[in-house]
Every structure is written in structure tokens, then in C-alpha cells.
Write a structure and sequence with these properties.
This protein has 110 residues and is α+β, with helices and mostly antiparallel strands. Helices cover 30% and strands 13% of the residues. Helix 1 crosses helix 4. The two termini are 26 Å apart. It is an enzyme of class 3 (hydrolase).
Length: 110
């Protein structure tokens, strides 16, 4: 059976709708999200170290997932430093990228 990426994304669209995403949806963090319909869950989001005592500086659109992985969106121009700070702080050693095969699908379903 062949399942398209589009079909998988449609199916995943329903997963986790009941889990809170308040931090990612807050006004101060919205400009840090590449896709407004894909937000990190509050209970397992990656928290960056707070910079200069500003509470909102701990946000990046990224979640810890089982087996010691982090899922995140490609950085925006205004989040490149946050992305590399996350890589450094979390001691990330491998960064796979599935950007091109996923981007068009999200735009179609978002």
C-alpha cells in the first residue's frame, strides 16, 4: 500500500489537538513560528536558557520526542541564533533535514 506524504500529514493533523500549545501561540512568540498551525506542545517543548532575564527568550518551536530526538522547524531569519543556541545547549550531534518534501504539504493543509 502506498501512502503519500500529503495523506500522512492530513492524518497527523488530528494528532495532539487536545494538548496545550500556549507558549508557542503567545503573542510574543508568534513571529518565531514558521507555520502558525504547527506549534510545540507545552509539556515537552525544548526550553532554551533565558537570556538577560527576559522570560520569552527561552522559546524555540521545538519538541523533544521519544528516543532522544528533537523535532523543530527550519529556522527563520529571526530565529537562526535560537536554532544554533538550541543545538549547542542540547548537545545536538546530527541534524537531518526533511524540508523540501514537507514544505509544500504543510502549505496545502495549513
Amino acid at each position: 500500500m502506498h501512502v503519500s506524504v500529503f495523506g500522512c500529514v492530513q492524518e497527523l493533523n488530528k494528532v495532539g489537538k487536545d494538548l496545550p500549545t500556549r507558549v508557542g501561540n503567545s503573542e510574543v512568540n508568534r513571529q518565531k513560528n514558521r507555520y502558525p498551525c504547527i506549534l510545540p506542545y507545552d509539556h515537552c517543548r525544548v526550553r532554551l536558557s533565558v537570556q538577560n532575564s527576559y522570560a520569552h527568550t527561552d522559546y524555540i518551536n521545538a519538541n523533544f520526542v521519544p528516543r532522544d530526538f528533537i523535532c523543530t522547524q527550519g529556522p527563520l531569519p529571526n530565529t537562526i541564533a535560537d536554532f544554533w543556541r538550541m543545538v549547542w545547549e542540547q548537545n545536538v550531534r546530527i541534524i537531518p533535514l526533511w524540508y523540501l518534501c514537507f514544505r509544500e504539504t504543510v502549505q496545502q493543509t495549513g
